[in-house]
Amino acid sequence: MEIWARRQDATGQDDPHRDQYGRDRARIIHSAFFRRLQGKTQVLGLGESDFYRTRLTHSIEVAQIASGIVEQLQGDPAYEDYQAFLPSLQLVEAIALAHDIGHPPFGHGGEVALNYCMRNEGGFEGNAQTLRIATKLGEYSIHSGLNLTRRTLLGLIKYPVLHSAVVNADKYSGRDAPSNLDAYKPPKCVFDCDAVSVDFVLEPLAAGERATFMAVQKMEGRHAKSCHKGFDTSIMELADDIAYGVHDLEDAIALRFVSEQQWRTHVHDRIKDDAARYPLAQEIDWITRELFSGCSRERKHAISYLVGYFIRSCSIIENGHFTNRLFGLSASMEAPKRAELDLLQSFVVQKVVKTAEVQTLEYKGQQMVIRLFDAIANNPTRLLPEKQQGEHRQYGMRAICDYLAGTTDDYATRLYHKIFTPSSGSVFDRL
What we know:
Keywords: Hydrolase. It is built from 21 helices and four strands. By secondary structure, it is mainly α. It has a domain at 233-353. It is globular. 44% of the residues are buried.
């Protein structure tokens, strides 16, 4: 497994006694890109409350859940043959902590807006930007970004396919934009300009297996989809789904975005009425009482139970497509419990994310991103900071995209007002 601990840039300064994945974890935590997650929207807009999750607190929770999944699988005798391939706790935490560092301001709305701006320039997608930060933009090396190990990078590639292989440009044509951006959701991918990074990560794979790993599934009238992901990535994605379905639910209840009646109608009663399908039916009554008790301690008791419940349902499956088990193994969740988690996620989406209150803020953020991008693209020497001007001369529109994707919600808002609001802005305002 030593080949997976290699870095893009062999500086010769690594302490041979230090755990390489521990170093990756430290670099991620101390990176400015990671710190900026504290100023980026998770589900609810920043500034409304100091209780709910930001991208930073979400990432920390995903790391904790991911390490819990690994510990669960390490302790299960059914997976004794797979122990050597399970990631260490430091490795899986590094992957989980970094999994969202590429996401732009204003949540998924900002992602769609940047994809609209880059529709003719190679597109934009948050996971692809994460790899770009890890391999090019991060501050730990001149040419290799955070210069993480190959296995950590593999764990960060959720969709190992190039943009050109999956994009369906017909989705973008003839649409009313930028007023309506619904058609501009990006394909899940890696940017073509970062193909060399993918080459490094997948170097140990034989050519045939590499082609299999990067296979795509065509979708009529939609972007194509990737077919595979690495073992570590599958663990991180399960942790991400659990955090999204359970912890974002906690935020929604605590901030009274959802009522007990809505919960009973859309979750409690469906689980209770189909006990044969949903194992949680035996516990759903007391979970509901605790969630809506009005007491934070009791609510947290139910939330903690749900997190543990889903962690204990995780398992390992072997897909048979690859001889290398980092690719041939995958973490999965028992089907009935996966259906329950999907139900929680759907509830959060329909009763929080899709509400007019949240969508109005998302729309506003999108319009700010588009206007900023357009202004900077037409006036790069006037509006880009000096460092980004040099990158713009080299990388063109991608440099502007990197700049805006790296901003926080607050920074982007202040930059918008500095440029477009007559009463805002000063030569002393360094943002």
